[in-house]
Structures are given as C-alpha cells and as structure tokens.
Amino acid sequence: MEEVYMKTPEGIDAPPGTVCRLKKSLYGLKQASRQWFSNLNEVLLALEYVQSENDYSLYIKHTTTGIVIVVYVDDILLTGSDTTQILHPKQVLDVKLSIKDVGQLHFFLGFEIGHVDGVVTMSQCKFANELIEESGILQQSVSSKLPVTPLPLNTKLFPDEGALLDAPEYYRGILGKLNFLTNKRHVLSFAVQTLSQFMQHPRDSHLTTLTHLLHYVKSIVGQGIIVQESTKLFLAGYSDSDWVVCRTTRRSVTGYIITLGNSPISYKSKKQTTISRSSSEAEYRVMAQAGAKVTWLVRLLQDLGVSDLTP
Fold first, then answer.
1. Rounded to whole angstroms, how far apart are CA atoms 235 and 311?
2. Which one-letter DSSP state was computed for residue 8?
3. Predicted confidence (pLDDT) per residue in 74-86, tens digit
4. Which of 65, 191, 280, 298 could form a disulfide with 81 if both were Cys (CB 3.0 to 4.6 A apart)?
C-alpha cells in the first residue's frame, strides 16, 4: 500500500503537528478501491487463476471442467460445470476476505436471474415495476390498449418544439432510469437515445413521448434476455445507421446488435460523433464499431474456452 497519512483522531494525546501513517486502507479513501482489487487479485492469482487480458475483472482457471470468476467491485460470481470445484475458491476467499455466500445466483446488480430446465433468464422486472410506479402513469387515465412500439410511429422530435418544462428534473430522472433498464431491454435503446438528446432543456412534446415509452415499458415489464443451452455457438452481428436523423446537428445514429446463439449479448444505439457526408459513410462507421466489438467478444470467448465459433 502507498504511504497515506491522516490527522490524529480526537482523544489521542499527541504533540502538535503529529500525523498518523495508515497501516491499511480505510473505507472512503480514494485509494481504497484500488487497494481492495489489488488484494483480491493477489488471492486469485495465488489460487492459479489467470486474469483475462481482455477484461481485467474476469479470472479463469483452466481445469477439466473450468471455473470462471467475475468481479464487480466487491460482488463476485463463481461459475463452472463442477460444483465441487467451486467450493475450494469460496473457502479460500472466506478465510482471506470474509465473504458472504448467497448460493445460486438469483439477483445481481439489479438484475433478476432465473434458472429453468437448462434455460437462464435475465430481467429487470422489479426495477421496471418500481419505475412505472414512481413515474405516476398508473394514476393517469389512458386507453386500455397499451402501445406496441417504444416510440409513436413516424416520431419527429425537435429541441425547440413545445413549451419548456417547469420541472425538468422529473424528465431527467425517469430517463436516466430508463437508460439503466436498457441493460436487459435492447428494444428500448433507440427510444432512450432519442429522448436523451433533450435532457438539458426538455419540452412538453418530449415529455409526451416519454410517457408513451413508459406505457410501452408497462406492456413488456416481464420481458428480458433468454440464454439457452446449445451444442453449436453462432456469433452474429447486425448493424444499421439512420443518416442525418438529427435536424440540428446533422449527425447520424449508430445502431448494432450482436448475438451469441439466439441471445443478444451486446447492443448499442448512439448518435455518431462526426457528421457523415453520405449514407454510405454513416454505414461504414457503424460497421467499424460493430466489427471492433465482435473482435473483442471473440477474444473474450476464447479466454473462456470457446474457440469453435461458427462464422
């Protein structure tokens, strides 16, 4: 640990100007997170796990069945084909770091994980219900027929159309939570990207569209991502661009989705940072981004022992 000093706490009799040197990291220090990960890294490397060069939070132990450890701050996932081999690293981590074992994974970082007959489901049903209740749309009198698309058909939004909102905080807060919901709802990505352009000065026309999106979320509240067992893994990528969709900046929108088997594992909808002078140029920019993501995913899957991907 690097040298860190602190003022002497109250109640300690020490000469004026005396400081204390910390022997270990304390919660709240800016160095604490790095020190924690360094300590965890030493423990895992001592257990002969290999840290992935493509994702430093991923650790793999190449055994006959294989064990994978994923780290997110102080939340740790362990998975493998042999449950008995998973017990040893858990025991060592408990001795070294005093962990809490919660058993089979059912809830992680706000995501709900289900296990049914070789099928894993990942959703955000609880978060979506809380968002709908917080938004207040349940108290609104609307048609019994919920929308079937995230945005109304042929939607065109402009930054200066309609009256400014008196309380823009509501718009920003709800949209920020919808952005988190896109983690397991790729169908929301384009709509959230579109509405996020007006975060600074939202208007009533933008709020109306946001309300439409919330009602759509209500109609798909239980949906998520399904991952099924497969003897053959097929990695596929699809990309598209919406050329000059922004009337103000003349910038295009990037959109791509990458699937492994029949399950989406990476997707994105974002306004391009540079103006494309033609629709072809916009498409090439999207393909470059999607291709870079596919290249990284191939390397990551190879770290996990998946090398026979069908092109």
1. 7
2. P
3. 899 999 888 888 8
4. 65
